[in-house]
Amino acid sequence: MEGQVREISLILLNCGMGGNGDGITNAIARLGENMAASRCSLLDYNDENRGFDLFQQWCAPGTAPLEADFHIPAVVVAPYHTRLLRGEAVIVSRDRTDRDNIEYSLLEAGGAHSVLCLPILRDGSLEGVLILSFPTSQPELQWPAEIRPLQVTADLIGAALARKRLAGELEHQASHDVLTGLNNRRKFEELLLQEIERTSRYQRPFAVIMFDIDHFKRINDRHGHDIGDAVLNELATIVGEQVRDSDIPARWGGEEFIVLLPETGTEGARQAAEGRLRRRIAETLFTGAGRVTISLGVTQYQSGDTLDSLVKRADEALYRAKEEGRDRVVVG
């Protein structure tokens, strides 16, 4: 058991400070193999749906994997919550659990005869559960000689999971606008360069829509910057809802936004700008500000375009939309 802890510790250390998924997967696999389990599953607590979602799993040959959206409601773990919070391992077995008990679903979900649940704790709260499933009766484990190393192993995996979560949060902060949650300019430019490269290679069209809020300074002056921020946030939400999953919206800066539309020509982008953005936003009553309009510039990628030339053409079209009276779409 002690050798197992050292081995898994080395696996997780070698995966780097980011706690990458491969390192966690390898650690879970080694734990499952060493324990002769049929499955080893790491579940991460999700506060939004009040339960534990599958994060990683390892399955022995012949064992069907759990569905990617596998979820255990918190109420299922509730009978053991206090023990898990104390850092104790919990064994649930068909030999000891009545079918009417809600925790019996722990066994049925994984098709196991018994499961060993190890808590993943962080700052005194239950952040996840590491579950070893067995096809036969509960494992014969001696406390504390064998259970304690398993808990240490769970702690190591939990620490790697926390590092991965932190790395993901930092990456998101570096690439997204704090106020609106949209991609920031740096991230958008990175994605736009990738799309230019893809289009140059495969000769596929794409377009860009650049737009800003008409008379935004007037909104800030009349209603205050808090209302101005609320307008930006509400507008970003509308944009996120209106664009396609394949489209990439971003906050370009200030009250200016930009959208990348892959596999889209000039006319398709113009229709999207007019129907899904300009008209939809003009119909919205924004909190504290009422009606708001936007002016939009649309352009399609042309052979030989650089990032700067493409964005400049979209910006010039936006400028013409302003000159022609605002609240309109202009193609450049």
Structure, explained:
This protein has two domains: 2-172, Beta-Lactamase, CATH 3.30.450.40; 185-331, 2-Layer Sandwich (Alpha-Beta Plaits). The chain is 45% helix and 23% strand. It has helices spanning 2-14, 21-34, 74-77, 81-85, 105-110, 147-175, 185-202, 216-223, 225-242, 266-282, 307-323; strands at residues 39-46, 51-59, 71-73, 90-93, 114-122, 125-134, 206-213, 248-253, 256-262, 285-286, 290-291, 294-300, 329-331. A six-stranded antiparallel sheet has the order 3-2-1-6-5-4. The protein has a five-stranded mixed sheet with strand order 8-9-7-12-13, sandwiched between helices. Helix 1 (2-14) runs antiparallel to helix 2 (21-34). It is elongated. It starts with a helix and ends with a strand.
Summarize this structure briefly:
The chain has 332 residues and is of the alpha+beta class. The protein has two domains: 2-172, GAF domain (Beta-Lactamase, 2-Layer Sandwich), CATH 3.30.450.40; 185-331, Alpha-Beta Plaits. The protein is 45% helix and 23% strand.
Task: Name some characteristics of this structure.
single chain; 332 residues; Beta-Lactamase; 2 domains; six-stranded antiparallel sheet; five-stranded mixed sheet
Question: Helix and strand layout, with pairings?
Answer:
Blueprint: H1 2-14, H2 21-34, E1 39-46, E2 51-59, E3 71-73, H3 74-77, H4 81-85, E4 90-93, H5 105-110, E5 114-122, E6 125-134, H6 147-175, H7 185-202, E7 206-213, H8 216-223, H9 225-242, E8 248-253, E9 256-262, H10 266-282, E10 285-286, E11 290-291, E12 294-300, H11 307-323, E13 329-331
Parallel strand pairs: 12-13
Antiparallel strand pairs: 1-2, 1-6, 2-3, 4-5, 5-6, 7-9, 7-12, 8-9, 10-11
Helix pairs in contact: 1-2, 1-6, 2-6, 8-9, 9-10
Enzyme class: transferase
GO molecular function: diguanylate cyclase activity
Organism: Thiohalobacter thiocyanaticus
